[in-house]
TrEMBL record:
Keyword Ion transport: no
GO biological process terms held by the UniProt record: polyamine biosynthetic process
Coiled-coil boundaries: none
Keyword Magnesium: no
InterPro entries: SAM-dependent_MTases_sf (IPR029063)
Superkingdom of source: Bacteria
Ranges for region Disordered: 1-20
Protein's name in the database: Spermidine synthase
Keywords, alphabetical: Polyamine biosynthesis
One Pfam family cited in the UniProt record for this chain: Spermine_synth
Compositional bias ranges of the Polar residues kind: 1-12
């Protein structure tokens, strides 16, 4: 989540504005297509020359669960954004089922039209629904190995869902060794509120140092892992080689967190 990259970003004039939801629009600047919800805030981005890669650093960090889970059966994305995480998981994890939950039909439509989101199939399902309804539904409890949460409205002042009830639902959806990553952005009061709510529910909650434009990515564990940094660095090397993600920086961030908080 960040302001528009440049005041000279070119608006394409494309607009998906089904009534009752914020309109979805795009701008393009220096080869990067950005998603907006009727404001200057960037809700996601895609480099046109690498449409299946994850462009934004904080969105890449949402994949740090790969350090702990190598072969998840089911990954769920709450908040589709520009579909970067959904596409990446679908294309690069061929044995994984991927579900995306998005309330705004305009976002789903523009992702399918301009961000290369594939049609649903046996492994991919994009559902138009409220994320709170998804996590509170008993049918979803215990069925998700990885939950990726990035829920913002057009004003981007803080996560749309940030209550203990919501995070309890996220916890309930996870399998026994499930992991949640979430992006916390907005007013500084949001950080403490969200971290406290997560800590009330999850066995372990860790966050990496702030990246560009005040995004903080948090990783929460249903069951606290044992952290062996030699193993994590080895795993980071595999992630870099196989998926081209900067996983060593994630391990460095985890190490810094432990030094400062334990």
């Amino acid at each position: 989540m960040k302001p528009t990259a440049s005041s000279t970003s070119a608006s394409t004039g494309l607009r998906f504005d089904q009534p009752g939801h914020p309109p979805a629009t795009i701008t393009e600047f220096q080869g990067v297509r950005s998603l907006h919800l009727g404001t200057s805030w960037v809700q996601g981005a895609m480099r046109l020359s690498r449409p299946d890669m994850i462009e934004l650093e904080y969105v890449q960090m949402m994949m740090m669960w790969l350090l702990f889970l190598q072969r998840p059966r089911h990954v769920v994305q709450l908040g589709l954004g520009s579909a970067a995480l959904t596409k990446f998981c679908y294309r690069r994890l061929p044995d994984t089922r991927v579900t995306a939950i998005e309330l705004n039909p305009n976002v789903i439509a523009i992702c399918r039209s301009r961000f290369g989101l594939p049609d649903d199939d046996a492994r991919l399902q994009v559902r138009e629904m409220n994320a709170l309804d998804f996590v509170l539904a008993p049918a979803n409890h215990g069925t998700v190995d990885v939950l990726q949460v990035d829920l913002y409205d057009e004003e981007a002042r803080g996560p749309v869902l940030d209550t203990p009830e919501f995070y309890q639902g996220c916890y309930d959806c996870l399998s026994e060794d499930g992991v949640m990553t979430t992006n916390v952005f907005g007013d500084f009061s949001n950080y403490d509120k969200n971290l406290l709510a997560m800590e009330q529910v999850f066995d372990a909650v860790v966050w990496l140092p702030e990246v560009h434009d005040a995004n903080i990515v948090v990783i929460a564990f249903k069951r606290a892992p044992s952290l062996d940094f030699s193993v994590l660095y080895e795993r980071a090397g595999v992630i870099k080689k196989e998926l081209n993600l900067p996983a060593k920086a994630w391990v460095n961030g985890l190490k810094t967190w432990m030094r400062d908080h334990l």
